[in-house]
Amino acid sequence: MEIDQHIAETIVSNIKDVLRHEINLFDTHGVIIASTNRSRIGHHHAAALLAAQTQRTVYVDDDHRYEGARNGINTPVIIEGEVAAVIGVTGERDAVESFGNIIRRMTEIFLRENIEQTARYNRRISETNLINQLIGEHQDTELIRYLASVLDWDVHAPHYVAVGHMAPCSPSLASTPDPVILPVRHLQRLPGSIFTANANGCCLVVESTPDSTAALRDLHEALSTDGVAIGFGVSEPTADLRLIPDRYRQARMALDWQQFTRMVQIVHVSDLDFGLLVPSMDHAYMVQFVDHVFGEIDDARIRAHQRTFDAYTRFNGSITHAAEALHIHKNTMQNHLNGIADDTGYNPRTLQDYSVLDTAFRLYDYLRFTHAYDKAPEA
């Protein structure tokens, strides 16, 4: 095991704040790689080499001299049965001998923290690479199987894709320098999943089990508790890795509809109706359809008609209840419905015309949501 130069310097700097002695950190070959006395970096130290080879503390004093060594103590740092480094304190033996266990334990703690941090980072990179391979159109089967084995991820189990998007106005995200820290703390606890995340959202490939749906709800609740406003789109499961790109598209479609409707926070593609059709439609045809129905009507009047139409729909065609909801007289409500018919040529009280208007209002809203449609007001 070899220690990174930056980590070695960090360890020496931290120990220096505790002990008022010269501190040296050696690699397993007895070479000083970090020291409070920078002029000694790169020097060979025979006592440190012996400590590494024997896995025992080696003392240097007037009776025990070693090439390149000054009086002091040199103790090996052992991680998982292997010498990772040797840490030394310069000084008279009587003054520094009691520090042997202290500096060894401190160095072990720093090294273990670094090893764990590096392992987490490497896993994150591997998970990101695996997900990119899984959802990409040109999968590298051998690379997928290699990364899956590294991550102990079951390539034969059924999985679904979940894509999440965080609202930029989330209070905790706004006050956090690195927003991705918030979701990752919870994402890594989701059983049977791999994930990748950035400042705006995340993508998970989750093993499909009887408990996985509840686990995703728990994840959403945990994120919400942290103040993170997030919605998820979820695909159908598949055990065929070749279908994962299609499942990713399903999840993106479900997420798109979730963001558009905002009715629920987790949308499964299997629950979509209009959501299966609208996001996949060509925007040019949507615009053509909306323009056909609404003609030259400006946005303000379309929205006014939509409020009338929505109330009429919500109360299943009851003019009385719709009028009460809008705080208007029922005769005014009838006039508003007539106004829709006059402006569009489609009468909401006629079943066939109603379906055209319903579709037009939905497409109008969706086009505005995607910033693909903006009618100019009348002059």
List its salient traits:
379 residues, Beta-Lactamase, Alpha-Beta Plaits, 3 domains, five-stranded antiparallel beta sheet, five-stranded mixed beta sheet, 15 helices, Sugar diacid recognition, PucR_C-HTH_sf
Overview of this structure, please?
The protein has 379 residues and is an alpha+beta fold. The protein has 3 domains: 5-107, Beta-Lactamase, CATH 3.30.450; 157-272, Alpha-Beta Plaits, CATH 3.30.70.270; 281-369, Arc Repressor Mutant, subunit A, CATH 1.10.10.2840. 50% of the residues lie in helices and 15% in strands. The protein is built from 15 helices and 10 strands. It has helices at 5-16, 46-54, 93-96, 100-135, 141-151, 171-174, 181-187, 212-225, 244-261, 274-277, 283-294, 299-314, 319-326, 330-344, 351-369, and strands at 22-26, 32-35, 58-60, 72-79, 82-90, 159-166, 193-197, 201-207, 230-234, 266-268. Strands 2-1-5-4-3 form a 5-stranded antiparallel β-sheet, with helices on both faces. Strands 7-8-6-9-10 form a 5-stranded mixed β-sheet. A hairpin with a 2-residue loop joins strand 4 and strand 5 (82-90). Helix 13 crosses helix 14.
Tell me the name of the CATH class of the largest domain: Alpha Beta
Classified in CATH, the superfamily of the largest domain is Reverse transcriptase/Diguanylate cyclase domain
Quick check: average pLDDT? 88
Count of individual helical segments: 15
Strand content: 15-25%
Which secondary structure elements does this structure contain, and how are they paired or packed?
Blueprint: H1 5-16, E1 22-26, E2 32-35, H2 46-54, E3 58-60, E4 72-79, E5 82-90, H3 93-96, H4 100-135, H5 141-151, E6 159-166, H6 171-174, H7 181-187, E7 193-197, E8 201-207, H8 212-225, E9 230-234, H9 244-261, E10 266-268, H10 274-277, H11 283-294, H12 299-314, H13 319-326, H14 330-344, H15 351-369
Helix pairs in contact: 4-5, 11-15, 12-13, 13-14
